[in-house]
Amino acid sequence: MDMNEILEKWDKINSKKSSDEKKSNHIMNDWLDKYGTIDKDQIAEHSQHIQKFNEKNYIQNLKCEETLDLHGYHQKEAEQLLENFINECVRRKLKKVLIIHGKGIHTKGTDPVLKETVRKFIECNKHCGASGHPKSNAEGGSGATWIVLK
Question: For residue 28, what is the enclosing H or E element?
C-alpha cells in the first residue's frame, strides 16, 4: 500500500466520523432545545444569597442605599412620601433603605407620630421585609428605621 492509498483511507474514515459526529451533535442539540439545562452554579449562588439575607448580622450590616428624611412633614404627607419612595427604590432594585422619622421630641403628646406611621407602613407594604433601627446614634438610632426591600 502506498502513501496515497493510506491517505485516501484516512480521509474516508475521518469524513465518516465527521458525519457521525454531526448527527450526534444534532441529536444532542435537539434534546437540549427540548429539555433545556439546569445551571447548578446559579442555583447554588441564589441559595447562598438567600441564606445570607436570613442571617441577622448580614442584614444589619448591609449598607443603606438610599435615605428618606421625613423631618417636618405631617402624617399624611409622610405616608405619601413613603409610598413614592419605596416604589421608586423597588423599581431601582435597591436592597436596603433608611427612613429618618425623628425621635418625636417635638411631638405634642406622648408618642412620636412619624415613627408609628413608618412602623404601620412597613407592616402593610408588600415590598417591605425585615426592618430595624440603626445601631449607633450617628446613623439615626431610634430616630430612624432601615428596611430591607423584597
Answer: helix 3-35
CA dist list (Å): 62 to 49, 55, 102, 131, 149:
13, 11, 21, 12, 12
Name the strands in the sheet holding 128-132, side by side, starting at the edge strand that comes first in the sequence: 66-69, 96-100, 144-149, 128-132
Most confident of 18-27, 78-87, 106-115: 78-87
Q: How far apart are CA 79 and CA 100, in angstroms?
A: 13
Task: Kindly tell me if the per-residue pLDDT of 76 is higher than 80.
Answer: yes
| Residue 90: partners with Cβ closer than 8 Å, 6 or more residues away | 127, 149, 150
What percent of the chain is modeled with pLDDT above 70?
80
> In terms of pTM, does the model score above 0.70?
no
| CA diameter of the chain | 109
Question: What sign has the CA pseudo-torsion 93, 96, 100, 103?
Answer: positive
Whole-number Å distance between alpha carbons of 100 and 117:
12
What is the pLDDT, as a whole number, of residue 6?
Answer: 81
